[in-house]
Batch of 4 targets.
Target 1
Amino acid sequence: MRQIHKRIHEEGTKAILVNLLILIVLVVGINLLWPHQTVWHVVAYVIIALFFGLIVRFFRIPIERKTTIMEHAVISPADGEIAANEIVMEDEYFHEERRQISIFMSIYNVHINFFPFDGEVTYYKYHPGKFLVAFKPKSSTDNEHNSIVIKDAQGREVLVRQIAGFVARRIVCDLEPGDASVVGEEFGMIRFGSRVDVFLPVDAEVNVHIGQKVRGKSSVLATLKG
């Protein structure tokens, strides 16, 4: 029997239904207030349809996308644009300098997050916080975020941080220390515009540059030293 793949994420079901109900009420209200159809009605219908299409598209699952399998590689955990690539002091877990690569996710990107390499979750912590614009450097620590550390079989650790942005108000993640990390598998998502930071060893060989578009589970962010 052929396997049926979901194209819409389960987190989107309620949001899609709620927005559909609101838009139906809006259309009915427009027709009750202005029953005579004009070109402005058509414009309103087009805008409403485009908005609903954007909501549905936001929760799409990239089922046709293949996972990049490469030894020592750290694969992008998110779709988006590289917003930062710098050496920083990581004070939450490592307490040492790390290379930070930040991926900004606009509302047009797939917002599912994927494990960047094989290993085990050794640390997970949720941090309540602000909702600053995700491009701002302080959003990495000041905004609401989740911090996840993954260790591979060689003992190399990478921290992945899900950060809520100005529009994003919900981070989805249900991990615990001891959970398996399988490259390319989903570990969560962030709804409506956000950012993901990846903290690598400083000697990692970076494969991306600022402004570059990357795809989750497909693009190679960096290669770790063996």
Note: Residues 12-58 form one domain.
Target 2
Amino acid sequence: MDPAATTPVRGPADLISIPPAAARLGAAFAAAGHQLHLVGGPVRDALLHRPGSDDLDFTTDARPERILELVRPLASTTWTTGIEFGTIGAQLDGLPCEITTFRADRYDRLSRNPAVAFGDSLEDDLRRRDFTMNAMALSVTGDRTFTDPFGGLAALARGVLVTPARPEESFADDPLRMLRAARFVSTLSVRVDPATRQAMTDLAPELGRITAERVQQELSKLLLGAGARAGLELLVASGLADVVLPELPALRMAADEHGQHKDVYAHTLQVLDQAIDLEDSGPDLILRWAAVLHDVGKPATRRFESDGRVTFHHHEAVGARLARQRLRELKYAKEVVEAVSELVFLHLRFYGYRRGEWTDSAVRRYVVDAGPLLPRLHKLVRSDTTTRNRRKAAALSAAYDALEERIALLKEQEELDNIRPDLDGNEIMQILGVAPGPVVGRAWAYLKELRLQEGPLDHDRAVEMLIRWYAQQS
């Protein structure tokens, strides 16, 4: 029998495994007469029995220059980009580690930049952290002392987010902590205690002074969480979304196209849930953003018709533009921006296929326009069905099944994933007797359009159509 299996658990420290690299680091600091404590996420996640992160955070009474002296002999590499804030980075046994001097930061309350004041007290350092469940520490210098001055373990057991200091003080010091609260709601399935939630509402405008890059990182982590819907609901209810994602709360004002009692905001959250259910290779940030933003064009395109209907004509085009604008402002990579906006633009096209009236040409165009996004488009379109009418939902599902079957059949017959003209550029120049230039590009585009319309052509037919087209150009 494994001896560890029979060892009684005496306290929280016994639940936290100390990696060998952390133990060696702790021994070096202890020999030099310094404290070293594992803090933050690694401690919290160990107590939750969650898979640990790939990096370790430590806090110590040693000053930055001394930290560097102690770490260098043990690390494969070190970095000092955060040394002015008291942080030294190091790679130990393949694990990224950050070791930070006890802090007693003072903030100017106009920006996120702290006026760094190093401290000598572990408790003071833990007081300045975001939430009590992240303000627990485990000594790695040999005694394994577990320090929890603000009741983080109890809050963790209750699944409640509480700040170590007064929430108004904590959030005024660093407004990003409010967004981090919503992220933890999504990723840890916790709730925010009433006083903390009220402070988030009162101080929501302060989030506007945080850089877009830091906001983007938190929103991505929130969206990739298992409880993304709950995190977004907190953003909207607290007013934080009005600052960083105003398109989402704006959807509460728009009735959906079916005239049902639910608004587009509720529909959007349901689409997100359904898209997550369809993921087959882990969380997909692009699909989830597309689900969140797919209807953001509706408020601007809402029209009340004389017969009582509500319409949102061309909301997919307006939504694609708004999605692109929002994601650019959040500093997302170009490939993310373009993929999400294209999915938003394409998500309605299927609704012209409900009775299977598309020609093969239309099916080809659907595949070509979606390109590598086609698998995500399939998921988004299927997720966009939130009607409670079972017969209608079944009909839509059957129609999309039929479309996917047609796509699969055409893929067997043609190279749909890489549709190209039946003649390449060299053949075009040889047949027409022209040099490289704009004419070749226009001829190539004409032949590709012909390929989409008619499917594969044999060589003689393609040559005939090219010559006929060229004759009409002069």
Note: The domain at 3-153 is CATH 3.30.460.10 (Beta Polymerase; domain 2).
Target 3
Amino acid sequence: MTVQYQITGASANEIAASIEVGVRDGHLKAGSALPTVRKLAAELGVAAGTVAAAYRRLRQRGVVETGGRAGTFVRERSAFTPSGTLAVPPGAIDLANGEPDPRLLPDLQALAHRVTLGHVGYRDGGPCPALLDLGRDRLAADGVHGELTVTSGALDAVERGLAARLAPGDTVALEEPVWSNIRDLVLACGYRITPVAVDGDGPDPAELDRALAAGARAFIVTGRGQNPTGAAVDAARADALREVIGAHPGVFVIEDDHWAELSQVPLHPVATAAQRWLFVRSTSKPYGPDLRCALVAADGDTKARLQGRMALAHGWVSNILQHFVIAAWEDPDAAAAVERARRIYIERQAAMREALAAQGITAFGHTGLNLWVPVSDETAAVIALRDAGYAVAPGRAYTQRGLQGIRISTGRLDPALAPRIAEVIASATGPAAPPV
């Protein structure tokens, strides 16, 4: 794509700032190719090293990505990119949307009569004691013990936790492939990233050990329902990861358990092996994305820092939201709805995984809303599926190493369609080995 926007600047900072303005204002669209280092240096009359430094800073901030010989491109999402979602062609069946099926969510309106509301002053706000009591019992049942607080969802907890423990420029070890929202948030906050490969049982302990030994100060792990792969940490992998974490006493570990109530596999906690840790269980997947509330367990010092930062900002999570969570956790109809959703999500994901296996295609996910399908030609697979009437997410949105794959979101999948989808993938790219 030809770049029409005129990039300016005489220093690396000025060039980077000019490109950020172009991205923010929409002149440099997501996916736009930037000029080569030599070409832009010649146009601006600066050294090639100056442009290379500007591009490097933009990569570190998550504004651009490098596609090898294909050049440097504006990322699909960054802190400077106008908001938007992956475009789904008209009439196509949406298998790119990783959100829960709204038809399977509990009826929050029906819970309103159970919600106890009252006026809360600025000095009185904070985590509701009743919510913490219920949450403490729920987490203890899964082997998680710590000091509790409440945040406005999982990403809020991650951002505040990292800010409480790290400084801009520090390195965070992330799963590979990884949920793009986590990666984009980490980059936008000014941290560096080192990838840790994920297979069906979670992150690779040897790669995590290398990342921590090389200086990564934090590690973010998904216990089950990993996005985009559907991986879940089993008991043996959890033991291995805890051993690695224990060997690096300075590391800060964040564990995301967003799939908790919907999971068909038990939790094997990893974060609690660290001296400084944060365990996050949000309510969005089982009860709805609009219920932006997450229960957080942590070591005492981290919890104090997290809650202290909240007190200096918006203060606390709305008591209305907290009481809705209490009502949802205590309501038998809501519990039945979550159990029904759990069974349906398992059925839908299994149908897609089994259809792929029948075509000789491995997809190792077995929890959550997604399957990661390794393919030999990602672009061909996405286009073939689009032409056949199915929209899937390209793997490049989730990988730092350029893994070839597609993410199929099974949360709203009609199981009857799975065999046809698998046939299209097989005809487009043929079988491929998993990325491990």
Note: The domain at 12-74 is CATH 1.10.10.10 (Arc Repressor Mutant, subunit A).
Target 4
Amino acid sequence: MDRTPAIVLVSGGMDSCVTAAIAAREHATLAFLHANYGQRTEQRELRAFQAIARHYDVRQTLVVSLAHLAAIGGSSLTDPHIPVSPADLHAHNVPTSYVPFRNANMLAVAVSWAEVLGAGAVYVGAVEEDSSGYPDCREAFFDAFNEVIRRGTRPDTAIVIRTPLIHLTKAEIVRQGVSLQAPLEHTWSCYQAEDLACGVCDSCALRLRGFQQAGVQDPIPYAIRPDYCH
């Protein structure tokens, strides 16, 4: 087990929770970072983050405001005038839920914190093959950001972004989470509801299909649970 601290970006969703479980297996000390950026389900995601942090007994947590992303707008997650599109699991275009360059904003904060903590890794639960087509969730983006870190931090700094789920499908992530006993019951993925997950936004659809393909019951409550395997 690596004795250097690691920072995990924890949104409160399933992917970040499973990533946290992987990081907990690989590092003795974890620090969790969460960002509020004016998203529709900001309070519910924050509660999920707090529950996951308690589960892993993480004492060093940082919740930051990236409210400028809401002020900039351009996403159905942050602009109430842009409706959240219904799920289209066969689409290849960038969906309305994309928050422009959000991951770069979050990673910049994480790397600043990593320098102070002496952390050697920043874990991100990005998924390329089974994501919603976000350009800042691709492996090439994280490879490029690793180069930015190398060039933009002190010479004795050695921080690497790790994306252990990047090439997995949602079904594989579910199975990994079950295997690692990740607290999936504490997670929240819905883009637009905070009480019952809607079941019909892109994030709900990808998550539900993953659980259905894995043959595992999703433990969170839904308003409806469509069958996304047929």
Note: Residues 6-170 form a domain with the Rossmann fold fold (CATH 3.40.50.620).
